[in-house]
Amino acid sequence: MDSAELRAVQEPLKDAYRSSPREALVTLRAHGQLDDQAVACSVATGRDLAVAGLHPATGGDGSLLCSGDMLLQALVACAGVTLRAVAISLGITVADGTVSAEGDLDFRGTLAVSKEAPVGFSSVRLAFDLDTDATPEQVQTLIRLTERYCVVYQTLAHPPELTMTVGVTPGS
C-alpha cells in the first residue's frame, strides 16, 4: 500500500468522523469461555481460538498461552501496524524491520506471596529495529507519531477507567 492508497481508504473515514464525531466511537469486544476442567480460558480472536492458561512461573506447564505474553503481543502488533501506517503516510520507506516488547513481572504478587510485590508488569519496553534510509529526524518523527497513535501503547501509558461486573447462574 502506498500513501495515495492509504489516504484514499482513510480520508472518507476522517471526513465522516469530522462531520459526525459519534460515528468514530466504536466498542470493541472480546469473549472468553472458562474451561470446565483446566485452569484455562479460551478466547475467540476473530481468526482462531486462543487458549490461555497459567504461566510456568505460576504453575502452568507452558502448553497454553500466557495472557501477559498476549498483552505484549498486542502491543507489538499495534505498534507495528501503526508504524507502517505512519511511515506510508509520511512517505518514509521502511524496507524491513522488527518490533519487540518485553515486560518485567514479579510473580510473588499474583501468587499472593508478597503484598509488596506488584501484580502486573512493573516495566514494559518496546523496541524497533528498522531497515530504512530515513534521516534521524524522520525516524524520530516516525517513532513519536507511532507512540502517539498506537492504541495499545496509549492505553498502557494512560490506563482507562476499568470496571468489573459479575452475573451468577445458579448451579444445577
Helix amount: 25-40%
Q: Count the E strands.
A: 5
Individual helix count: 5
Main sheet characteristics? 3 strands, antiparallel
Oligomer: single chain
How far apart, in Å, are the first and last alpha carbons? Answer: 55 Å
N-to-C series of helices and strands: HEEEHEHEHH
Q: Cα-atom Rg, whole angstroms?
A: 20 Å
Give, in spatial order, the strands making up the sheet with the most strands: 1-2-3
Shape: globular
Task: Tell me, rounded to a whole number, the average pLDDT.
Answer: 95
**Class based on secondary structure composition and strand pairing:** alpha+beta
Polypeptide structure, described:
The termini are far apart. Helices cover 38% and strands 22% of the residues. The chain is globular, with a radius of gyration of 20 Å. It has five helices and five strands. The strands form two sheets. Strands 1-2-3 form a three-stranded antiparallel β-sheet, with no helix packed on it. It is α+β, with helices and mostly antiparallel strands and 172 residues long. The longest helix is centred in the middle third of the chain and has 24 residues. Helix 2 packs across helix 4.
